[in-house]
Design goal:
Layout (H helix, E strand, L loop, with lengths): L1 E6 L5 H6 L4 H6 L3 E6 L4 H10 L4 E5 L5 H10 L2 E6 L17 H13 L2 E4 L2 H8 L7 E3 L21 E6 L6 H5 L1 H10 L3 E7 L9 E6 L5 H6 L3 E4 L5 H4 L4 H8 L4 E3 L5 H4 L6 E3 L3 H13 L1 H18 L2 H22 L1
Parallel strand pairs: 1-2, 1-3, 3-4, 4-5, 5-6, 7-8, 7-10, 8-9, 10-11, 11-12
């Protein structure tokens, strides 16, 4: 059976990590995916209705106007809604604040209309359950194809320590929030640097920045070549909707991690086992000191992180959930027919 996936684009990070990652597994179960980019015009939206007629549709992240949600639901055979952000809110850095009634109304309409909802974490699932049948909502985390990430076989022999941060230019504001902490880290430790993998780059007075322009073909190599992954999110509802992709990439590459205890960070990081949860500047410095002085601990924590990804956040660990969901919807479609 062919699944029609309505997406931002086939190359979008969410499409790659939450849909395309499963193509091989879904194909073995008899399911194929055809991508349709979300239309940019009103005419395109109207034409979309005829394209989905009688099809099983996977709507990713988009919040259509309520009238279009109604038409899509009437036209398609089955509607699956997949999302991995608190898209019913504005982001943490919006000057207008988090709450947006129009987004929330559209989110409610999609949640009510969908036959199945796939949320990237429990906070998002609970948000959908306010409007949808709880039985129709399930959590499937954002996943990593661990086969792309070589396991670390030996510790870094250098006395230096290269931290790494990966993200988009819009999320660089998170580094600005912890700028004083990063400046202190740069002043406290010799030989420490921060690799920023992005399309825009900050500068610091006391911390050396290695600028790496993001390229899909190089991101694994660049992350794997570092020794410590870092992440920070503001403590708000938008951040609790995030699914921890940065941390999962670092851990898949066998890196220990440091992040603040917000949202899924608390679920992904087992403190002192695969990384550190740090709030204050002193806690960040203490964590860095622990990692910096022990190559053995870098390796142990990195290996522990890799195991967590393989067990809970890998493609192989979650593919069966998608297959079971599609099988269930297929059975319902046959019974209805």
């Amino acid at each position: 059976m062919e699944i029609l996936a309505l997406v931002e684009s086939e190359d979008h990070v969410c499409t790659r990590y939450r849909i395309s990652a499963y193509r091989e597994h879904l194909a073995k179960a008899g399911y194929s995916i055809r991508y349709v980019n979300w239309p940019k015009s009103l005419v395109g939206m109207i034409n979309l209705v005829s394209k989905v007629r009688g099809r099983t549709v996977l709507l990713q992240r988009k919040l259509p106007p309520t009238w279009l949600t109604w038409l899509l639901r009437r036209s398609c055979s089955r509607l699956i809604f997949d999302f991995d952000d608190a898209i019913f809110l504005r982001d943490s850095y919006s000057k207008k604040g988090l709450d947006d009634q129009k987004r929330l109304s559209r989110f409610a309409a999609v949640s009510k209309a969908a036959d199945a909802i796939v949320a990237g974490n429990q906070f998002l699932a609970d948000s959908a359950i306010r409007y949808a049948n709880p039985a129709s909502v399930m959590v499937i985390p954002t996943v990593i194809d661990t086969s792309r990430y070589p396991e670390k076989s030996r510790p870094n022999q250098s006395d230096s320590l290269e931290m790494v941060w990966i993200g988009s230019s819009s999320t660089l504001q998170s580094l600005e929030i912890i700028r004083p902490t990063l400046e202190t880290i740069g002043k406290t430790f010799d030989g420490i640097s921060l690799k920023v993998i992005c399309d825009s780059f900050p500068s610091f007075e006391n911390l050396r920045i290695t600028q790496v322009r993001w390229e899909e073909d190089r991101e694994v190599e660049e992350i794997s070549g570092s020794q410590l992954g870092i992440c920070f999110m503001p403590d708000d509802r938008w951040s609790r909707g995030k699914c921890g992709l940065k941390l999962l990439q670092y851990m898949a590459a066998g890196l220990p991690v440091i992040a603040n205890p917000v949202g899924v960070h608390v679920e992904i990081i087992n403190h002192n086992k695969n990384g550190f949860l740090a709030t204050t500047c002193e806690e960040w410095v203490s964590a860095i000191r622990s990692i910096h002085k022990s190559k053995e601990q870098q390796m142990i924590m990195g290996a522990n992180g890799r195991k967590i990804v393989e067990a809970s956040y890998s493609v192989c660990a979650n593919a069966g959930k998608w297959v079971n969901l599609l099988d269930k919807l297929d059975d319902q479609k046959l019974q209805a027919g």
